[in-house]
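Q: What does the predicted 3D structure of Oxidative stress defense protein look like?
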Amino acid sequence: MKKHLLAVVLGTSSFISAGAMAADVSFPHLETTGVGEVIAQPDMAVFSVEVTETRPTAKEAKQAVDKAVTAFNERLKKAGVERSDIESANIRLNPQYHYPKDQKPELTGYRASRHVTVTVKKLENLNAYLDGALGDGINGINNIQLKVSNEKEFAEQARLAAIKDAQAKAKSLAAGFGEKIDGVWKISYQPSMIRPVMMRAMAMDSGANTEASYQDSQITIRDRVEVVFRLEE
């Protein structure tokens, strides 16, 4: 008896049309979505801090933030942080005004700000760097990203897990319908991005205990693959 076209679609989170994957396919086939997941412990971080100062003149405001940034950069370099892992943004300088009712605005001073982004290759040093920033006059943390240094290795593990998942689903489904797999006809794949763990921004004097939270954090690396398997005719 001639077999009819068999199409099975898995993966409710997919926005890719399974029918589009196998468009104009005239032979019996089976479609699956393989999903892989790997849990990793972060071992590095990227954080961004900010110093903002308001002074009567633009020159004084600039000098104040430059002084804090220079001191912080020097502290990091003495601690062994490579210069290439420190990015100091250009200064932002804005006049500040007071707006009396029914009167012209009055210039009250200038606000200057600079950002410093630091890549921390040893996570255990993160808290010490943040504490050092406070002592150098840095007055805000914009964000902290916890990451893994060997992203490619974990991404490969997640990819292989997704491939095995697609194969296992296909084998199980084919057997359940009394069919046999006869090779792979099409593979659709788009690499998944590894998203770092984001810690919320905070004021430097907030007293928040970030150390325990980032040391206990985990990063989930996920990947997926869409596969069309040919069935024996």
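A (community wiki): The structure tokens above were generated from the sequence. The helical segments are 18-21, 58-78, 126-135, 151-176, 210-215. The longest strand covers residues 106-120.
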